[in-house]
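Anyone able to model this chain together with iron/sulfur cluster?
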Amino acid sequence: MGMTGIEIYKLLPQTNCGDCGVPTCLAFAMKLAAGQAELVKCPHVSEASKEKLDSASAPPVLPVAIGQFKTGGETVLFRHEKTFVNPTGIAVLVTDAMADADVDRKLAAFRDLRYDRVGVLLAADLVAVKSESGDAAAFEKLVQKVAGAVEEGLILMAESADLLSAGLKHVAAKKPLLYAVTKANADAVGTLALDNKCPVAVKGENLDEVIELTQKLASMGLKEIVIDPGSRNMKKAFEDQVVIRRAAVKNSFRPLGYPTIAFPCEMTKDFAEETLFASAFIAKYAGIVVLSDLKGESLFPLLVERMNIFTDPQRPMATEQGIYPVNNPDENSPVLITTNFSLTYFIVSGEIEGSRVPAWLLIMDCEGLSVLTAWAAGKFVADAIAAFVKKCEIADKVKHRSLVIPGYSASISGELEEELKEWKITIGPREAAHIPAFMKQYQP
Ligand code: SF4
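re: yes, here you go
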């Protein structure tokens, strides 16, 4: 936020009515300045003040929506300073110069390559549709085809406003990203974006040209802008990403305060190298990366990298509390319990799955802490576990009353037996790697 608490206070009604949930306007102003409150909480602020405060409270990298997909909104240079906000969008490129079968294969990959990890669905987000032939009818037809297969998240790429307009004909309601405004077409493409309320990308020959273009679009009233600095050499492109983010975050330089788009697909013909470039752009600082193809061996690692970078470092990753069936268990299958730290869930459920022994896995909400940490924090202790076991209704799913606890929580087994008098408590392995051997000999 660019304004101090006192500067914000001067723009508030100063009536201390408390309707915002804070006793005084000054306290509310201080919260706003610290980014701990939102202006909408004050229903009495004037429109004129709202406008000033809105722009002052905007994040250094402005947010952009492409249909349901969101990019930008970033406030820090390094993830550990706070958190990154909107994960880098992964897009696949299709063009009107491609054979139909190739386009179909890429759209099928876009639809089918989805991964469930830690309860989160990982998938590519956008399809970039490019006019290479310069033929408006061919571009319109391709855009229509893609729009039929992809609900949201379109990028329309063409050199002129006329071509973009042809592509936009049937998909304006999906709010695609129009790529790109250049020096040659700025007025026409800017007007097209304004008229259709679409986000727009600028492409400059260098950063000076980008600055000129974003300033021009901002003066036309466009707020949702994405930057392509134009560099296609990896070293320069990487440097541009860092310069743009630093200028926005450290220097509050508004002309570069927009999310970026990077094109690893235009930087190399080697797909493995392209994947490596995309990986670097996900780490620093692309809002969108465009790939030439989607293949599991490339997409999955990129998605996992993205997930790791864009999780909030202040909040442990957690799995939802509940009963997880593994290998189709029945009423005689063993019951194991552990905490909801995602990594714990993943490793334990993976090892049970690998053992091929059907089992019920109880995942208990311990605020995302691992077994030992949750135990030390008083969250994975006998009375809490007993309360969860009773509440989760596992007793309705099994005939026996045997519960396996993690080896690291052996010290609570006696206490747990006291709390769960009907249940026999067994101490399981300390290390997840020993679970398969344990499962093969364990009888509930
Ligand atoms: S609601 Fe607005 S006017 Fe009332 S105390 Fe809060 S900031 Fe002040």
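The domain at 64-310 is CATH 3.20.20.20 (TIM Barrel).
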